[in-house]
Amino acid sequence: MTTEERNDHDVIVIGAGFAGLYQLIRVRQAGYEVRVLEAGADVGGTWYWNRYPGARCDVESIEYSYSFDRALEQEWNWTERYASQPEILDYIRHVAERYDLRRDITFETCVEAMRWDNVSERWTVRTDDGRSRTARFVIAATGCLSVPSRPDFAGMADFAGELYWTSNWPHDGVDLAGKRVAVVGTGSSGLQTITAIAPVVGSLTVFQRTPSYAVPAHNGPISSRLDEVKPGYAEFREESRLSRLGFHCGEDATGYYAETPADGVRRELERRWSDGGLCFTLSFRDVLFDAEANEALAEYVRERIREKVHDPVTAEKLTPRSYPIGAKRMCVDTGYFEVYNRDNVSLVDLGEEPIERFTERGIVAGDAEREFDVIILATGFDAMTGALTAMDVRGTDGTLAEKWAAGPRTYLGLMTAGFPNLFMITGPQSPSVLSNMMTSIEYHVDWITRALDHLRTRGSRRMEPVVAAEDNWVNTTNDVGDLTLMPRAASWYMGANIPGKQRVFMPFVGGVGTYKQIGDGVAVAGYHGFELT
Ligand code: N01
User: Fold this and answer.
1) pTM over 0.90
2) Ligand 1 in contact with 186 (CB < 6 A)?
3) For ligand 1, mutation pick of 188, 318, 334 (most atoms within 8 Å of CB)
4) What is the pLDDT of residue 252?
5) By residue range, what is the domain housing residue 410?
6) Is 134 inside a domain boundary?
7) Which domain of life, per UniProt (predicted)?
């Protein structure tokens, strides 16, 4: 019987993105029978769905790739410093083929509900095709940014033109040439879309609620850097695992803003700016802790925006002032601000002209109705908890959505009490979205696989966090978050982008290396804080 025909499994993995695929490889290697359930028609997760123009990773290719197989990392050649979505999807497909993964994956199948049975000590997993499967263990590789947030603007259904979400872009592409296009949303997806389509469309109107801080990518060919890194890739990866963000940012040489003279501050900001990328926020150790240090960085970025945007009124609208830099996810751009110097691009500041409604012809904001052929919505995701609570997950004492109504509660972002044998890869209260996802994914997958091995070796069937350990971890995560400026922004890290969602700071901000030491310590101590029976 193939694993597709079976209804009872050792392990069910939900999701066939980077996390689910690596988990499949590892549980297979460990000798478990496993089925992966995936909503999409192929592998890729976020990179399968988010195919909008200009989609690109803003963690460098040499870091944003698997490290588990030396042969794989030696044989794959990235072409650019920051890989484009098509190239990343090619890589994921290559991995799926190289390790013959598709035979254990059921595609176009969405998990609707999961119920724990205390007697059989198994999960029953129901999918949207009406089928139920059981498994001893379920591993949710459901992604941190996989459930789109779809604001319900008044009159949306009346719009007679084309309407697209960046998070579910048509696979055959969209012809935007010469058309009147609107983009709503100016986070990473919006910025990349706007930059890519501005030269192609007839006219582009950007609806901005909050301006973003963006650092230049300085993207370009990567070949010489790859040649440098490849001979010492193992050491390079280990350094990433022990770093703060899960990728190299030269943090050992980083000083404190408070101890750096003004000319030194300027030199460092200029150096970081010309290097490009997300490491800009690590210019000084205290940027996320000290309001003055933070403001120095923010002001530097504001100056750059004023330099790039010719019209001072537009420049001011594009200038972020209402939140600390880094407290919302930084964007990495390639000519975004310069787009507003084009004659065919205009900006609507929703603070001055709020969207009133969509109409048959376009969007009414402020007093004006603007007409469009195409509206593109880049309005973000129900981050970190959305994919988990969207499923009707019933544990020993109720549902996950009920348990997390006042914010997620996990132990290490790996498990949550009352839901035995349910693991989360990059769950809330782990570094996840504050890190290179590849580093964090691999760490969690390896940790979970070792835990399964441990259970098997000692003859245990069930693993669950002890409530006190979970409470302690939730408090630790909150306390570390509260030491920083991050809770001061209405960000998706806080759940603030979803109406009615409890505002709590969800990721662990203590750093990837620190988190690894804690996670390793828990495992070495016999899974301290977990009950194994
Ligand atoms: O989503 P976002 P995203 N009316 O939530 C606006 C990763 N990512 O898809 O800021 C009007 O950041 C919203 O406004 P505001 C990365 O981690 C990575 O762009 O809430 N506007 C905001 O401007 C990223 O952070 C890459 O006031 C509304 C925008 O929509 C994360 O995914 C590329 C609105 C949403 O921005 C999410 O990025 C893409 C409303 N009702 C994504 N609702 C790379 O690696 C929301 N907005 C490059």
Assistant:
1) yes
2) yes
3) 188
4) 80
5) 8-43+101-147+382-532
6) yes
7) Bacteria
